[in-house]
Design goal:
The protein is an alpha/beta fold. Helix content is about 55%, strand content about 10%.
Amino acid sequence: MAARDTSVGREDSMFKVFLVEDEIVVREGIRKNIPWEAYGYFYSGDAPDGELALPLIRRIQPDLLITDIKMPFMDGLELIELVRKELPMTKIIIISGYDDFSYAQQAIRMGVEQYLLKPVVKGKMVEILSALHKKMKAEQQQQEYLERFQREVQEYETFARRRFFEQIVTGTLSVLEISETAKTLNIDMNAPYYNIVLFSLSSAGYDASAPESYSDTVKVIQDKIRQFISDYPEFILFTWNVTTYAVLVKGSQEDMAERTDECISGIRSCCTTAGRDVDWHIACGAPVSRLSAIPLCFAKASRILSYRYICPEEHILSEAICRDFQRRNRPGEERDKKDINQKSIRSFLSSGANEEIDRFIDQLLQSAEGESVSPVLFIRYLTMMVYFAAVEYLDSIGCRADSFWSLELRPNDSLMTPQELREYARRVMGQAIELRDRESKKQQHDLLKRAINFIDEHYRDESISLDRVAKEVNISPNYFSAVFSQEVGVTFIEYLTGKRIEEAKHMLRQSGKRSSEIAYAVGYKDPHYFSFVFRKVNGCTPSEYRRGGRQ
């Protein structure tokens, strides 16, 4: 029995082969007489029977298994059955004598590639090895093309995953629908317990009145976090909005707290490397044992994350930390209190969302606890504060806010209860956020137009990517991806691929250029990959299309 190191002295293009044969003379003859490397193989090991071979095969995971049928302890049929289940991509060649033909027929029904009679003739073995190498090489290339294509369409998957997560946390999917959709997106949702970690990440001083600018620092941190998350099968990353992400943490009841802390610690480690160039905050919900309870977990995490406007210096947020922050920062002088409330409201208006308004107002009201002034006076004070903070914020971003001078939105002394304050503040803040987003959309439209023009002019360049286009127009890749899909109706890669394929179709019908020349002309350096993508998109090969195939 022999097993060799499969990581040394072997080219990546070679396929690993493993031999199982009980007759030592036959085994040594096959091993020594075949120039394996000359035919693209690396001889990775052998064994005298299936029982001894199986653990070696599991460790080595050969691309090709050559096995006798009749062997002691575990025969070839048993071995083939196990390998078929555990390593379905492994090719199998069986060796047998004339009297083993019934066994050979059974092995062929089990999906073996070739059947060799004893005594094994070197010429026949070489012929089979050459044919199999060609077949495996073609399959390997197709798999590489498929994986490359899937990486390129990952942007669409990100969009689909974001929509899926939104449907989960808003409770619009049943448990069965969650399981079925997760399966189509290749997401494993099965676990005894779940928790949600939310984190916001943006350039320092980000203001939603304009699209978020491209930042190398933020991009590096995003990549670090994605890499960290990908190392843990218990963590599933989703994009929630332009600056907020969610991690679904899976685990048992016993290890859920440890898993959640591990997730928070990892994200914090990635973010702290940026210093003050990046604004970041992390919050988590409470563990739940049902998929249907995830919306409750998300609601709690969202409520806690919204405290970032009240206590921006705290990066790891919790209800206890935020209460302590408010207690420690409750000033004795009215002027200081005004400064703190004004700053919090302005921070919220600059990057908050409509769905966060109610939570933010509740947090402002909580700051009234323990104050010596009457609740009515405090409500009137906050009314004035909300109004003037909104007017000053809109003025700072150069937004005309004529509607704010209408009688309906001006503060008055009629507001007496927290509920009346909520309704008033909701109108004022909602109007301010609407005007802010309108200003952002004006700039967004111009940036998107520039981006599409850049794509249309450079789609023939193989190096063009979402990140490169985003950098060209100075917009964050995450923001650009979301806006592009929303406004254009397709993802960036779908638009780029469509542009290339349409030009290729035109050239196929209108020119005599070879398919490889057309591939280079529309941005594909690999003609075979171009053909793969063309067929994926158009349902036929470039040659079939040229001959008048599917439109």
